[in-house]
Each structure stands twice: as C-alpha cells, then as structure tokens.
C-alpha cells in the first residue's frame, strides 16, 4: 500500500476530488494547512498598511491506495491541480506497512 500526500491550492479541491473519485479512489482525508515553498509568502495591503503573508493557505490530501494504483493517483492529482503558476503544490508517495479498518478489523488492502 502507498500513502499519497498532496498539498494543493484550496480552490482546486473539489475538481481534484471529483477526478479521484472517477479514477476509483474510495476515500481521502483533507486538512486545511498553511505553508511556503518557492513562493516564500508575499506582501498584501490591508487598510493602507503593507504586511507580509509568510504562509500561504493550502489543502493537504492524504490518500491510501494499493501499490498498483499509486502512479495513477499521482497523475490524476498532478493533471487536475495544475494551474501552471507558482504554488501549485507538491505530491509525496510513502510506503504504508499496515492498515486496519476499526469497525471490522480488516487489514491490508481489505481495509482500504
């Protein structure tokens, strides 16, 4: 099993969710996060005063899938979340040693 973690722009969430559902993803966890990378934040003006925004709002997706589906999930996220502008996000893929469905006790691929 693989854990796919993606940080994307918040306005792309629904489009990515629909594309992943269409690709056969059965569930995901979503968290609102703040961070910075190449963007390094930016400055804004509020009530005439300029201030620095050091962290940019993002949405983090966490999706556990069977090994054979990981590349497809990454491709779907990459193609759907892309705006061709700085700050589109990052995708990480990690190995998952074990998964357990709390309600039934199913383990491994059966749990996802």
Terminal-residue CA separation: 9 Å
> CATH topology, what is it called?
Alpha-Beta Plaits
Number of strands: 6
How many domains would you count in the coordinates?
1
The best one-word shape is elongated
Largest sheet: number of strands, sense, barrel closure? 4 strands, antiparallel
Order of helices and strands: EHEEEEHE
Spans of at least 5 consecutive residues with low confidence: none
CATH architectural type: 2-Layer Sandwich
Strand content: 35-45%
Could you give the topology of this structure?
Layout: E1 2-8, H1 13-22, E2 29-35, E3 42-46, E4 49-53, E5 56-65, H2 70-81, E6 89-95
Antiparallel strand pairs: 1-5, 1-6, 2-5, 3-4
Describe the structure.
The chain has helices at 13-22, 70-81; strands spanning 2-8, 29-35, 42-46, 49-53, 56-65, 89-95. It has 112 residues and is an alpha+beta fold. It has one domain (2-111): 2-Layer Sandwich (Alpha-Beta Plaits), CATH 3.30.70.120. It has a 4-stranded antiparallel beta sheet with strand order 2-5-1-6, covered by helices on one side. It has a two-stranded antiparallel sheet with strand order 3-4. The longest helix has 12 residues, at 70-81.
Structure characteristics:
112 residues, 20% helix, single chain
In short:
The chain has 112 residues and is of the alpha+beta class. The protein has 2 helices and 6 strands. Strand 3 and strand 4 form a beta hairpin.
